[in-house]
C-alpha cells in the first residue's frame, strides 16, 4: 500500500485532547459544578492553551452531554438529571452481563490476576476516601472483563454509556464507605464465579454491581 511522502504522523496527544480530558475530569470531580458558566478565555489561560482547543473540546463535551452551549449566550456544565439514572444504568448492566457471559470462554489467568489486583487497589482507594481514583479503578475492573469478551461492538456501546454515568458514579463513591464496600464484595464474587466457570453467577453479579448503585444513587441525588 503506497503511503504519501508528505504524510506527517499526528501528535500523540493534541492540545484539544489534553484540554478535553482535563475539562471532563473537572466536570466529573465537581471542580466545575453542574450549571456553572464556562468562559473559554479563562479556561484557555488556566490550561495554558489557546481558545481554539478549548472551544473544540467544549463542542465534543456538548455532544457527549457534559455541557450545554447556548449560541450567542453562554456555555454551562449540564445539570445532573435524576431521571437519567434509571435510563442509563439498566442498558449498561445488560451489556456488562453479556460481556461477562462472552468472557467466560476467553478469560485467562492474566485477566484473573488483573481483576484481583485492581479490586485490591479499589478497596484501598475506598478506604482512603479517594473517590475519583476508586471510580477509575472500578472502570478498570469492568474493562478487563470487556476486553476478555473480545467483542468490539459490545465494548463500544459500554464505553459510550460509561461516559454518561461517570459523574453519577463519582457522586455515589463520595457517599459513606459502607455503601461502596458492597462493590468490593461484588467484585470478589464476580472473580470467584469466573474461577468456577459459573455463568449464572457471573451475569447476575455483574447486573447487580450496576443496578444496586443505580437504586442507591436515585435515592441520594436531589
Report what the structure shows.
The chain is 70% helix and 5% strand. With 222 residues, it is mostly helical. It folds into two domains: 63 residues, Arc Repressor Mutant, subunit A, CATH 1.10.10.10; 139 residues, Up-down Bundle (Four Helix Bundle (Hemerythrin (Met), subunit A)), CATH 1.20.120.530. Helix 2 packs across helix 3 and helix 4 crosses helix 6.
Short description:
The protein has 2 domains: 15-77, Orthogonal Bundle (Arc Repressor Mutant, subunit A), CATH 1.10.10; 82-220, GntR ligand-binding domain-like (Four Helix Bundle (Hemerythrin (Met), subunit A)), CATH 1.20.120.
List keywords for this structure.
mainly alpha; disordered N terminus; Four Helix Bundle (Hemerythrin (Met), subunit A); 5% strand; 2 domains; three-stranded antiparallel β-sheet; 3 strands
Give the topology.
Elements: H1 15-29, E1 37-38, H2 40-47, H3 51-63, E2 67-70, E3 74-77, H4 85-103, H5 109-127, H6 131-149, H7 152-173, H8 177-195, H9 199-220
Antiparallel strand pairs: 1-3, 2-3
Helix pairs in contact: 1-3, 2-3, 4-6, 4-7, 4-9, 5-6, 5-8, 6-7, 7-9, 8-9
Amino acid at each position: 500500500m503506497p503511503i504519501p511522502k508528505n504524510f506527517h504522523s499526528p501528535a500523540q496527544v493534541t492540545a484539544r485532547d489534553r484540554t478535553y480530558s482535563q475539562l471532563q475530569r473537572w466536570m466529573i470531580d465537581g471542580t466545575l459544578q453542574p450549571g456553572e458558566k464556562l468562559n473559554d478565555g479563562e479556561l484557555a489561560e488556566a490550561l495554558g492553551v489557546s481558545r481554539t482547543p478549548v472551544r473544540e473540546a467544549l463542542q465534543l463535551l456538548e455532544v457527549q452531554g457534559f455541557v450545554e452551549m447556548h449560541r450567542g449566550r453562554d456555555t454551562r456544565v449540564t445539570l445532573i438529571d435524576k431521571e437519567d439514572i434509571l435510563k442509563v444504568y439498566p442498558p449498561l448492566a445488560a451489556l456488562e452481563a453479556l460481556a461477562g457471559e462472552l468472557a467466560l470462554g476467553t478469560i485467562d489467568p492474566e485477566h484473573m490476576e488483573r481483576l484481583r489486583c485492581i479490586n485490591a487497589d479499589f478497596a484501598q482507594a475506598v478506604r482512603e476516601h479517594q473517590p475519583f481514583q476508586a471510580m477509575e479503578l472500578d472502570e478498570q475492573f469492568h474493562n478487563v472483563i470487556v476486553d476478555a469478551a473480545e467483542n468490539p461492538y459490545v465494548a463500544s456501546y459500554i464505553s459510550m454509556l460509561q461516559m454518561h454515568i461517570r459523574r453519577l458514579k463519582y457522586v455515589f463513591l463520595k457517599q459513606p464507605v459502607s455503601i461502596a464496600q458492597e462493590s468490593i464484595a461484588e467484585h470478589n464474587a464476580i472473580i470467584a464465579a469466573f474461577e468456577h466457570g459459573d455463568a449464572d453467577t457471573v451475569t447476575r453479579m455483574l447486573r447487580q454491581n450496576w443496578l444496586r448503585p443505580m437504586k442507591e444513587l436515585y435515592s441520594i441525588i436531589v
